[in-house]
Each structure stands twice: as C-alpha cells, then as structure tokens.
Write a sequence for this structure.
C-alpha cells in the first residue's frame, strides 16, 4: 500500500519548505521538495522604480545574504550605466562580501548544522551541551558581522556601500580594529574543517556537475561561468544557457544550466579551482582526496575551508586599504542611460546573478535574479531521491534524519529562491 | 525560576528579524539558558504542535492563507504576541505596491499564467487580523530592541514604547543634515527613531525602514520636499517602500 512520509517544516534552514517521500511498501516512488515560502514578487515590485532604489530594495530578498545581493545589484546597475568605481570602493565591497561569507558560513556550520553532528535539537541545546564549540563558532560569526557592520553601517541590509562609491570611507582605526578581530579568530577558522570532516553514514550519492564563476584575480569582475564537464558561458548571455521551469509543488524555479542539473556553492568553487589564500590552500590539500570527485556531503568541509579563505582574504584586503591614499578613493556620480546590466558574484551558497534593464531616465523596466538555491534545486531533489532509495528498508525516522541532514549539506536559502521567478 | 516559553517564527519575510536574534553572538548562549525556545524552526528541530507560549515573537507580513492560519495559531497559543520588524508592523517591502497595483497583476508578471493558481493577497500587517501586545520595528530591527524585550519578559513586563523621530538621534550625534544641508530626500523627520540614525551617520539618507513615528507631521514633510524640488511621485515611491499606507494630510 502506498504511503507518504512528510518532513514539514524543514528546520534549521533559512525559510519555509518541506519534503514528501512517496512510498509503495518499502520502495520509494518519488520525493517531492517543496519550497513553500510565500512569494514576495520582487521582480514585479522593481518595475517602475528608479535605478537608485533597486539595490536598496532587492537586498531585502534575503537577510543571510543581503550583502552579496546588494553588491551584485550595485555591479549590475553600474554595468548598465558604464560606471567604473574607484579602487577603494572595489576593495571595500570585496571586504564586506568576505565578511558576509564568514558570518553566513559560521552561522550555518556552528548553529544550524553542528546540532546534527552532536545529535541535539538545535542551538539552545548546543549552548548547554557544547558551550565551548558554540562559543568558538559565535566568535567567528561575530568577526564576520563586525566587518559587515563597520563597512556596511549595519548588520543586515548594508547601507554604506552604494552606487558609484561609499557613504563614507572606512577609517584607519576601524580597519585596524577589524584586523585585530580577524587575527584573533583566524586560528579557529583554520581548525574548523576538523570538526566538519566528521563522516556520516549515507549511501553514495551522484557526483555533482559543479558550476562556479571562472576564478579571476578580482572576484568582483568575474564575467564567465564554467562547469565540471567543461561547459562555459559569459554572464551577459546567461539567459541563453540557464533554462528555468516551474514545478507544480514548489514556489521556486527549477533551473538547468547548459542542459544539466548544476551544483553551486563552496564545494563547486573548490572543485573548479578557486584561487585560495596560503592557509586555506594548505587545508584544502589535506582534505582534497576526501571531497573532490565525490558527492555533496563534502560541501560542509568546503564551507569550513572557505571560512579560513574569507578571513585570510579579508586581512589582505584590509592591508591593501590601509595603504591606498586619497588618489584611489572618491565617489563617482552615476549617470543613468538606457541599457541592460548583468553581474554575477559567488554568494556564500554559490553563483548569484542579477540583471536589470533601464530606460533613458534610469527607471527599471526589467529585473531578473537567479539565486544559488534555485540553481541547486534540481540537484538537491535528485540527491534526496537517491538518498531515500538508498535507505529503503531502514527505519523511517533514520531516513528522515538523513534527508534533513542532506538538505543542510546544501545549506539552502529558501526566501532567496522563491521571490524572483522569471518565466 | 521558570523559563519563559518562546515561539520565534516568520511569515512572509527575509528571516532578517530572526537573524537579528542569532546575531546577538555575545548574548545567545545566555538567551538559550534563560528561555525555553519551544518553537523556533530556524534554529531548532522538533516542535510540539500543541505547545503554548509565554510570548510568540513573529516576523513577516501576512500574504497567504497559510500565513494567516499560522498567525492565528500563534496568537491562540501564546499569552503575548510580538510583531517583530517592519513587515509585521506595516507590511514592509513586499507591501510597497499595495495601493498601486493589483495582486493578480503582480503575480502574473512574475509567474506568468501559473500565477493564477497561487493563493496570495496584498501583504498586510498583523494588526489587520489580530491584537498585538508589543512591537519591535526596523528592517532590520536593532539588536538592543530584541534584547530589551527578552530582558523585560524575564522581569514579567514589556519595555516602554519609543516615540521620537530619527532626527532626534541624528541631531544629537551632530551629523550633517542631509535634508537641509545637502538637499537629499531624507525621511528622518517622519520615521521612528531608535536606530541611532545609522544611515545618516554614514552619509546615506534615511530610507524609512522603521516606519512612521507616532504623530508624524507628514503633510509638512511633503511640503518641505516639494519646496525643495523633489517630484511628488518620487517622494511617494520612497515613502511607500516600507509602509504603503501614509496619511498625507491636507495634500491628499
């Protein structure tokens, strides 16, 4: 007789979702991933708004990654108008994106995922059973947040980074304070991978076809994507290569990239040869064999490696910012013109694309955002099915625990994924 | 001491208000010790569907039948209901076009024909449906506001309401007045303070993320902005970003 097992709501993830496993006896027929977040219709809301308002509104798609949404939107609008920003502005933006990466990975690894490794319900029980580990994670998270607050003016939905420049340049004292905070947590960032290396007893899952931005020396100017299977395309042509469709049970779109189910995120970046800082490179060499060419469970270790990478990169950026004089600073006036701008960045969860069209007065006539979670949705659904099938015959509770665990390997950000469907 | 039981949840939102609690890195372990986080899907697995709470702290606007059902459930299960953040209080960013466009049109623009099957209504604040015992404003809210609420709950009370505009703190910080001295479209005079004028302090105008201050002189702000040459449409667009329903006074 057929039966349905439901995990509702998904917990310790951002946003609202559920999973249904349809079984015929012990056999798993299909698995439905339902991203049920209420749609906020951002794309439609942006039409008719001025270019200056676009980044301020669109960053509200998501709180966890509001910084990278804001920076990507700034880049896309500036690209539409042909604006080139100063060196200080570019470096400061990269610094805050790294701050966001640190806070986001630390939140996911230490508050949302760690309970799985220790077999507890969540962050509250962690505080009682593993207070030192939680404290370490929160200290790392706090350092990332300190970058976001110092540079962005507040912790979520940053304001100080704006079109053509900065509200104010970050002063020497503030940079030095960030530097000492980062140096204090760097040892913990470098050790994090040991904790998240813990193997877990899943059956083997499909090997992902990774998608990431082509590594360049200035990550904010990447203009091409590439995949494990060798496929590559320019960001400005993304619409021709990323095809989306709607699934009846989900408010998020299902994307295929160059005809395949792509996987984005930390593991994808490391697999496709992201350029790493010295410390992160060392760790990566140690765990490479365990994670490359294997399934998605390596993503959490990859995130831990990126904690170290982001902290080291942020320190480098601070050193650069400390020596640039007035000549490399300054804001530019943004002059609107009719045009289309598309930009992509590596958000904590993977490739993020923003694209906007404007008329001659700078009023938005079209908006499109492709988020990492919508890119990952197909691969996640595929892996959930493979995992459920691989665990046929086992206790239902063991299967649901494993499915939830797999979802947290992907670290989905559901409010990002549903609000900006473009069909 | 009995640990107060909390529900922390989100409706139509970005999770930013819940993240604000998780951003209290120094206080979080203490919060976990002093409260029972009975229902907090973003941070805790496993919850009891029949649980009751001393306080439900809920973010987001109400925009779907599921949101509404969830809001009623939390209201019924909790002694206190706290509207957490601008969306819960005023509708927030998702509601900015409520007065200008029909919901069905927006849905169709985003989802195409498939939009017809989606159950969704104009995002609305909690007070349209239930009684609310306390509010915390902001997009995002300030950490000190959620911490003050938690501290008050432990003491069996609620914090006093704040009621002064952004300009109060902005002037006492001796910031440059972006509205009068740089002729920029700053909403400080009519927006609830308590953020220590974060944005004007970095040189960026107040975008109004904390919603209207009580007894805001909206007509006078509108008059001032029009006098300074701003376009009426632009002003209304800016003002409705977080709060769709303003009383424009004698000018409407």
């Amino acid at each position: 007789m057929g039966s349905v097992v439901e995990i509702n709501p998904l917990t310790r993830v951002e946003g609202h979702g559920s999973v249904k496993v349809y079984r015929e006896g012990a056999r798993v027929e299909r698995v439905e991933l339902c991203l049920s977040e209420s749609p906020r219709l951002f794309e439609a809301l942006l039409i008719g708004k001025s270019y200056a308002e676009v980044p301020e509104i669109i960053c509200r798609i998501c709180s966890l990654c509001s910084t990278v949404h804001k920076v990507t939107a700034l880049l896309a609008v500036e690209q539409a108008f042909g604006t080139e920003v100063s060196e200080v502005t570019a470096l400061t933006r990269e610094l805050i994106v790294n701050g966001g990466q640190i806070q986001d990975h630390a939140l996911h690894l230490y508050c949302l995922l760690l309970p799985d490794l220790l077999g507890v319900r969540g962050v509250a029980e962690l505080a009682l059973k593993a207070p030192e580990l939680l404290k370490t994670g929160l200290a790392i998270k706090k350092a990332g947040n300190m970058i976001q607050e110092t540079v962005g003016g507040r912790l979520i939905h940053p304001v100080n980074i704006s079109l053509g420049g900065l509200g104010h340049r970050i002063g020497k004292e503030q940079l030095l304070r960030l530097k000492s905070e980062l140096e204090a947590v760097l040892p913990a960032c470098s050790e994090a991978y040991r904790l998240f290396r813990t193997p877990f007893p899943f059956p083997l899952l499909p090997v992902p076809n990774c998608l990431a931005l082509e590594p360049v020396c200035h990550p904010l100017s990447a203009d091409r994507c590439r995949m494990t299977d060798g496929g590559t395309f320019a960001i400005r042509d993304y619409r021709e290569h990323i095809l989306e469709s709607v699934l009846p049970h989900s408010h998020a779109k299902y994307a295929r990239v160059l005809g395949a189910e792509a996987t984005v995120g930390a593991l994808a970046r490391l697999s496709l040869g992201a350029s790493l800082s010295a410390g992160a490179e060392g760790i990566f060499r140690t765990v490479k064999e365990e994670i490359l060419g294997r399934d998605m469970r390596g993503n959490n270790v990859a995130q831990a490696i990126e904690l170290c990478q982001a902290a080291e990169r942020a320190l480098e950026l601070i050193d650069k910012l400390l020596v640039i004089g007035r000549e490399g600073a300054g804001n530019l006036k943004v002059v609107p013109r009719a045009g289309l701008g598309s930009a992509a960045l590596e958000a904590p969860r993977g490739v993020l694309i923003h694209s906007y069209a404007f008329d001659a007065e700078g009023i938005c006539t079209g908006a499109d955002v492709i988020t990492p979670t919508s890119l990952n949705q197909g691969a996640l659904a595929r892996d959930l099915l493979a995992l459920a099938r691989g665990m046929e015959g086992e206790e239902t509770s063991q299967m649901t625990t494993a499915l939830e665990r797999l979802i947290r390997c992907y670290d989905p950000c559901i409010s990002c994924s549903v609000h900006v469907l473009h069909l | 001491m009995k640990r107060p039981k909390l529900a922390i949840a989100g409706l139509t939102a970005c999770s930013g208000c819940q993240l604000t609690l998780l951003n209290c890195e120094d206080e979080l372990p203490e919060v976990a010790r002093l409260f029972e986080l009975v229902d907090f899907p973003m941070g805790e697995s496993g919850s009891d569907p029949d649980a009751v709470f001393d306080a439900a702290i809920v973010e987001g606007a109400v925009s779907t039948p599921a949101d509404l059902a969830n809001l009623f459930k939390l209201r019924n299960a909790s002694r206190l209901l706290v509207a957490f953040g601008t969306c819960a209080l005023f509708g927030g960013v998702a509601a900015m076009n409520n007065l200008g466009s029909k919901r069905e049109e927006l849905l169709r623009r985003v989802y195409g024909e498939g939009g017809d099957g989606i159950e969704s209504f104009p995002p609305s604040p909690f007070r349209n449906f239930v009684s609310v015992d306390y509010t915390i404003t902001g997009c995002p809210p300030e950490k000190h506001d959620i911490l003050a609420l938690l501290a008050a709950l432990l003491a069996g009370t609620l914090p006093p309401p704040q009621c002064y505009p952004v300009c109060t703190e902005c002037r006492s910080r001796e910031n440059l007045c972006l509205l009068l001295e740089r002729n920029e479209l700053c909403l400080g005079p009519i927006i609830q303070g308590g953020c220590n004028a974060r944005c004007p302090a970095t040189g960026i105008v107040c975008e109004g993320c904390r919603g209207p201050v009580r007894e805001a002189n909206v007509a006078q702000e509108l008059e001032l902005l029009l006098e300074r040459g701003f376009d009426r449409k632009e002003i209304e667009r800016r003002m409705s970003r977080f709060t769709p329903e303003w009383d424009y006074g004698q000018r409407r």
